[in-house]
Specification:
9 helices; Cytidine Deaminase, domain 2; single chain; 5-stranded parallel beta sheet; alpha/beta; globular
C-alpha cells in the first residue's frame, strides 16, 4: 500500500484514520495543523510533524521527505484570518490564483488540491480508508420519521443545498415547513443551541445536514457524531437527516445508540430514500 500523509485538523477523525492505518498495516505519517489539530487525541509513537496552515511549501517538503504518495485531509479547520495565515510563497501563489476574495470557500480548497497534486501527490477521500464513515441511505436507528417529518426533511434539504451553493453553511433547522435557523460560521453545535429558543409548539424540529453542491468531496465533508446527538436532544429536536454519501458519521455505533436512547431519529437521505 502507498504511504499515506494525513493532514490533521481538529476533532477525533484524524485519530480514527490513524487507527485504521495501523489496523490495515498501511504506512503513514501525520502533518498536524498547528492551532487546529488536537495532539492529545493522537498516539505518541507515530511519525508526526506540526506545520502552520499557511506553510504549504514546508508541508509539501515534509511529505516528499517521507516518501508520501497519497494525501488525506481530515478534521475541522476554523477559517483563519490573513494575519493568522502568514502564507509562505507557495501558499501565497495558490491564494493569488484562487483570488483573495475567495479565501475560505471551495474554490480555495480546489486550488490547494491542484497545487498539491502538481507535485506528484494524489489527494484521496476518507472513504478510501474508512468507507464506513459515510452515511448510508435509509433509517439508521430504531426511530422512524413520520410523513410530516419527511415533508420537513425535503424542505430542509432544498434550503440547505441553496445555502451551500452560496457557501453560507451546510445545515438548517426546520419545523412544520419553516426554516427556523441556518448555519453560519459558528458551526452546527451553536446552530442547534440557537434553534432551541425558536422552536414552535407541536411536532419537533429537525436538523438537516448536507454537502455543498460544489463541494470538493475528498476534503471537508460535513460531520455528525455523538456530540451532535447530545446537543440535539438537549435542544429538543425530533431528529437528524443527513445526505447519504455526503456526510460523515463519527463513531457510528455510539452515535446511533445515543439517538435511540434520546428517542431521536437519524436518517440518510438521497434521491431513492425519503424523496
Amino acid at each position: 500500500m502507498e504511504k499515506l500523509g494525513i493532514v490533521a485538523g481538529n476533532g477525533s477523525l484524524p485519530r480514527c484514520v490513524v487507527e485504521a492505518c495501523q489496523k490495515q498495516g498501511r504506512p503513514f505519517c501525520v502533518l498536524a495543523l498547528k492551532g487546529h489539530a488536537d495532539l492529545k487525541q493522537l498516539p505518541d509513537d507515530i511519525d508526526l510533524v506540526e506545520v502552520r496552515v499557511g506553510a504549504l511549501g514546508r508541508a509539501l517538503s515534509e511529505m516528499k521527505k517521507r516518501f508520501v504518495r497519497d494525501i488525506l485531509f481530515i478534521g475541522g479547520v476554523r477559517r483563519p484570518s490573513l494575519a493568522e495565515l502568514r502564507p509562505d510563497l507557495r501558499a501565497l501563489s495558490v491564494f493569488l490564483k484562487a483570488g483573495l476574495r475567495r479565501l475560505g470557500d471551495d474554490g480555495l480548497l480546489r486550488a490547494v488540491i491542484r497545487q498539491v497534486e502538481s507535485y506528484g501527490f494524489r489527494v484521496i477521500g476518507v472513504e478510501t480508508v474508512l468507507p464506513e464513515l459515510l452515511a448510508q441511505s435509509g433509517v439508521l436507528g430504531k426511530n422512524t420519521p413520520s410523513r410530516a417529518d419527511i415533508k420537513d426533511i425535503r424542505r430542509g434539504f432544498e434550503a440547505a443545498k441553496i445555502l451551500g451553493q452560496a457557501d453560507v453553511g451546510q445545515s438548517v433547522i426546520v419545523q412544520q415547513g419553516l426554516i427556523l435557523a441556518v448555519e453560519g460560521i459558528e458551526g452546527t453545535a451553536a446552530l442547534i443551541a440557537r434553534s432551541a429558543a425558536l422552536r414552535r409548539k407541536g411536532s419537533g424540529s429537525i436538523l438537516v445536514k448536507v454537502a455543498k453542491p460544489q463541494q470538493e468531496r475528498r476534503v471537508d465533508l460535513p460531520t455528525i457524531g455523538p456530540e451532535t446527538i447530545q446537543a440535539a436532544a438537549q435542544a429538543g429536536l425530533k431528529g437528524i437527516a443527513v445526505e447519504a454519501g455526503g456526510v460523515l458519521i463519527v463513531d457510528f455505533a455510539r452515535t446511533i445508540e445515543e439517538a435511540d436512547r434520546a428517542h431521536l431519529f437519524v436518517v440518510g437521505v438521497d434521491q431513492t430514500c425519503l424523496f
